[in-house]
Every structure is written in C-alpha cells, then in structure tokens.
C-alpha cells in the first residue's frame, strides 16, 4: 500500500510539472503573439511620425528623436523645421519653460536654411530674453523666411534694447530673406530706415505688415511701404501714424486695394496724448479705392479723449472699445458708422444704452456681431434691438448682468423671446466670450 501511494504521488507530481510546463509554453506563445500583433514603432511611415512630431513641444520632440534611427531621421527632416516658435525667458523671472539653448544652437546650425515661418515669443519682461531673440535673429543669414513675428507678452522687452542692436539683427533677416510675406513686429524699436531696407528686399512679396506701438516709425515710413509694396493686403498700425495724407496715398490708382486695415487708438495716460481728426473726404477716397476693405479699430481711451472721433462718417467695420465708453460716443457711432459689422463694448457704466442700441440697429444695416459687458440695457430695449437686426446677428455675446428686467420681460423670459427673433436657441453669457 505504501509503495502504491508513493507511485500515485510521483505520478501526480509528474502530471503537475507537465501541466505547469505546458502552461508556461502557452503563456510564452501568447506573449509572442501579442508582440507579433503590436505595431513596430520604428517602422512607422515617416509621414506619420512627422505629423506626430509637429504637435510635440521642442524638448519632447528632441527626446523622441532618441528612440531609434528612423525617428532621429524624421527629427532632421526639413519639413519639420519650416514652422518654428522660439520661446525665450529667464528662469529667475518666469516659471514657463524656454527653448533650450543647446537645441537653439542645433536648430541654427542644421536648419536655419529650412526655417520659413518663425516667431519669437518673449514671455517675460527681461532685457536678457529680448537680447537672446536678437542674437538668434542675427544668425539667420542662410534663411529665407516668409513669416516673421516678434511677440512680447510682457512689456517693455524689445523696447528696452539699444535701438542699434535691434535694428542690426532685424536687418539681417530683411536682407537675407528676400521673400517675406508677413511681418508682425509690435512694441519694437523698428524705424524708418529699417523699413526702407525691408522694402528694398521684399517689396514684391510683402502682404501683411503689423507694427503697432513702434514709436520710432513715422508716417513717412508707412508711406514708403505703401508706395513700394503693391502686393500689400493687410496693414496694422497705431492711430498716430494714420493721416489724411496716408489715406489719400493709399487711395491712388497705383496702390493695390487693401483687404484689412487695423488701427489701434491707445492712450496710456489720460490727457497726455493729442488725437487728430481724419477728414471725411480722406475716408471717402480710401473707401472708393478699396470698397471691400475691413476697417478694424481698437479703442483703449479714457472717456474725455473721444472728442475727435466719430464726428464725421467713418467707414469702420469692426469696432472694439476696450475701456469705458460714454453714451454720447455710442450715440455718435450709431449716426456715423453705416458700414459697422461688429461692435464690442467692454464697459460703459450704469446708464442704460437703450436708445443707443436702437439707433445702431436702425442705421447699421450690416451689423452681425455684438458683444456687451459691464454696461446696462433694459430687457425690452434689447429684445427690440434683436428684433430689428433679425437673423443676421450671427454672434451675440451678452453678459447676464447687462440685462435689466422690466415690466415686459424678466431674465427667465428673455432668452425665449430673443431665440425666436434670432431663429436659434440663445442664452445670455455668464462670462464674456470675446
């Protein structure tokens, strides 16, 4: 009996070992099958890897390039470097991660001739970050840029630099590119002579020039661009550079018809800036020459500084008031802006704008977008305004606090009435969306 029991135990043990080995074999086979079915990331098509890399931040892109030889090849493909943004800041003044200096050196060394759409984003106000941007600009001697943007999210940045240092770096790009079509250089010490260099080398290709808050540029510098760059389609500048002479020059037959003209009307210190009035005849000549132009005006003024504006008919299409604007000025808008397409009022005060809105609805037959915040309108006047404008109001962004209930409508009722006249469901905004 003992011998039979030992034999049974041995057989059971052997059976268990066999079963365990069989289980391991199946497990290994299953793992091999899974591996066989998994994609081979190293053999992905380069076009797919390229698309993925384009969405990655630069540092992550650099890390990914070390995965395998195929990914490293994609990292150095010219198409990956046509569009690039240099982010610059100082660790001591910003928590944001800047473009790594060693990567910048590698990009300049290997890909400067591939760069076409480039922006420099200075995310702090340090002079060192702006100087770093200029140092990179001055190295782009082998590039052929189509788009250049200098963006400073905190002032003064570029304005803190010695003017000669900035101009020298910018001139390198102007002279070597020869094919710039878009230039955005707000808040920089660019000047008239540097604009002449720009025109001399890129007059056949320049289509967009955006240069608000550039105090060293004069109306003569803008006229130089307008005279020579016949392909110019978009122009953005400060109001102090806008003049009757410039508008008349832009209205001559030798100039192309602008599609977009943006004017920033800005005052930092109330009463310190003198604003001139543009004559109606100058606006008329400009619109006759460019009848489809979008005239965009941003106002950042104090209430007492609006006197020179909207005294005559003004062909503005998009109008933004970034600071408080009086009832009187909004009333004049309704009388003098027949081409108005979009109106945004960020603040007005506690005097209802009922009459002003009704007048705008009566006179501005093209109005299709309205935004109101930190002002007051009675619910009845607002419904009447929407009724007069009808379904052409494609954008209607009104803070709930703007609407004042009256005997006819409550806040609970107004969204049904407005929705009926708009032909779509509408609710007031809890926060401004512009």
Automatic annotation (TrEMBL):
Localization terms from the record: Cytoplasm; Nucleus
GO cellular component, one term: mitochondrion
Keyword Transit peptide (UniProt): no
Segments forming domain F-box: 44-84
Region annotation (Disordered) ranges: 1-27
Domain of life: Eukaryota
Keyword annotations: Biological rhythms, Cytoplasm, Leucine-rich repeat, Nucleus, Repeat, Ubl conjugation pathway
GO biological process: regulation of circadian rhythm; rhythmic process
CDD domains named among the record's database cross-references: F-box_FBXL3 (cd22178), FBXL3_LRR (cd23957)
Pathway per the UniProt entry: Protein modification; protein ubiquitination
Basic and acidic residues bias spans: 18-27
Name under which the protein is recorded: FBXL3 protein
């Amino acid at each position: 009996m003992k011998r039979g029991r030992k034999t049974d135990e041995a057989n059971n043990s052997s059976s268990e070992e066999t079963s365990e080995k069989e289980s391991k074999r199946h497990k290994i086979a299953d793992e091999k099958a899974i591996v066989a079915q998994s994609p081979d990331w190293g053999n992905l098509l380069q076009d797919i890897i390229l698309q993925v890399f384009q969405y990655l931040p630069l540092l992550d892109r650099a890390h990914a390039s070390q995965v395998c030889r195929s990914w490293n090849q994609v990292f150095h493909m010219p198409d990956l470097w046509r569009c690039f943004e240099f982010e610059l800041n100082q660790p001591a003044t910003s928590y944001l991660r800047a473009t790594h200096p060693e990567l910048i050196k590698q990009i300049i060394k290997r890909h400067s001739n591939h760069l076409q759409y480039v922006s420099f984003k200075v995310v702090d106000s340090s002079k060192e970050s702006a100087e770093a941007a200029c140092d990179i600009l001055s190295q782009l001697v082998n590039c052929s840029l189509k788009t250049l943007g200098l963006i400073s999210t905190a002032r003064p940045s570029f304005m803190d630099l010695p003017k000669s240092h900035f101009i020298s770096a910018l001139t390198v790009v102007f002279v070597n590119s020869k094919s710039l079509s878009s230039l955005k250089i707000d808040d920089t010490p660019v000047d008239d002579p540097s604009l002449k260099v720009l025109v001399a080398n890129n007059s056949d290709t320049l289509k967009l020039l955006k240069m608000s808050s550039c105090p060293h540029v004069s109306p003569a510098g803008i006229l130089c661009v307008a005279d020579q760059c016949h392909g110019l389609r978009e122009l953005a500048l400060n109001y102090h550079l806008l003049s009757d002479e410039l508008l008349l020059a832009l209205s001559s037959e030798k100039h192309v018809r602008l599609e977009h003209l943006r004017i920033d009307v800005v005052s930092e210190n109330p009463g310190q800036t003198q604003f001139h009035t543009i004559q109606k005849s100058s606006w008329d000549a400009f619109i006759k020459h460019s009848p489809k132009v979008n005239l965009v005006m941003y106002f950042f003024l104090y209430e007492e500084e609006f006197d020179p504006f909207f005294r005559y008919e003004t062909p503005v299409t998009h109008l933004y008031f970034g600071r408080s604007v009086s009832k009187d000025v909004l009333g004049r808008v309704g009388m003098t802006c027949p081409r108005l397409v979009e109106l945004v009022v960020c603040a007005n005060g506690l005097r209802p704008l009922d009459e002003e809105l009704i007048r705008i609805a009566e006179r501005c037959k093209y109005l299709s977008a309205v935004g109101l915040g930190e002002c007051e309108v009675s619910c009845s006047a607002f419904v009447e305004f929407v009724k007069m404008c009808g379904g052409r109001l494609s954008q209607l962004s009104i803070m709930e606090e703007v609407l004042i209930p009256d005997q006819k409508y409550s806040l609970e009722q107004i969204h049904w009435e407005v929705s009926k006249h708009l032909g779509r469901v509408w609710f007031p905004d809890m926060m401004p969306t512009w």
